[in-house]
Amino acid sequence: MTGKHYVEDFRVPPGSHTRLSDFDPDFKGRHSKEKALAKIDALREKMDDLQQKLFAERKRSLLVCLQALDAGGKDGVVKHVIGSMNPDGCRVANFKEPTQEELAHDFLWRIEAQMPKRGEIAIFNRSHYEDVLVVRVHNLVPKAVWSQRYGQINDFERRHAANGTVILKFFLHISKDEQLKRFEQRLDDPAKRWKISESDYTEREYWDDYERAYDDVLAKCNAEQAPWFVIPANHKWFRDVAISEIIVATLESMNIQVPKPTVDLEEIRRKYHSALDEDKHAKAGHRRRGHAAHR
Length: 295
Ligand code: AMP
Ligand code: MG
What we know:
This protein is of the alpha/beta class. It has 2 domains: 4-253, P-loop containing nucleotide triphosphate hydrolases (Rossmann fold); 263-295. It has helices at residues 5-9, 33-57, 74-80, 100-103, 109-112, 134-137, 143-146, 149-162, 176-188, 198-203, 207-220, 236-253, 265-294; strands spanning 61-68, 90-94, 121-125, 165-173, 228-232. A 5-stranded parallel β-sheet has the order 2-3-1-4-5, sandwiched between helices. The longest helix is centred in the C-terminal third of the chain and has 30 residues, at 265-294. It is globular and about 80 Å long. It binds adenosine monophosphate (AMP) and magnesium ion. Residues 95-98, 126, 130-131, 134-135, 140 line the site of adenosine monophosphate.
């Protein structure tokens, strides 16, 4: 497994004019699916451990933004990758079509409310980027409005990064053929049918427009402190191993410090546990004598 190299392999180089079409959605590295699944298990454990440390440190937070076209696998990543962590310090926020209340505020209002607290990990299933993607593709606001948002997003992310939130942004990259295949599987699978909407199909007509909108996002909103990764996602197991690897490598690079205990542990041990130990020994003694008496 190429391991930490995924951080470099799938990082969109800042300041570049990288396009989605420069990435192969079908890429799956040199290793087998079996090896990848074993690796994912190991990474899930590490992630869980690192998240507990982040929670204990309570100084910084992590934000993971997931973006994709329909059937790109956002829900799968939430379940398979993020599901390994303790829900107590980990939160998923879904951003759907804005409500009337949300529309009555500026586009970052609902995002701000879901940002992670110190010690927390937040996962955004869709994000503020919808406001320069679907909104742009369907002219939901005038160009004069959405075109200003790239700068506003950069300011927003810069402020949060400067205040201790580490930000990772993943685009789950599938091909148009793979999308249709997944829609078909949904039709066939009674457990997944509920996800189908006609707009999934009509949105396919805007595929190229979405690609262009994503290309602009990658070019304009990809600062050092809030990087984009384009993850090959035709193979679900490869998508999961790549994202797990990047999250773990990022948490490791944060050099999280678990705080020292604020009490004298030896004192606590002497005060409360030595009495308990004596008690335990005494009880064990009773039991032994009891058994002997019965024999
Ligand atoms: P899903 O994630 O498949 O449940 O669908 C959520 C839908 O909400 C998608 O069609 C998104 O494009 C849409 N959506 C999310 N954010 C916005 C937004 N800011 N403006 C308009 N539509 C949005
Ligand atoms: Mg959908």
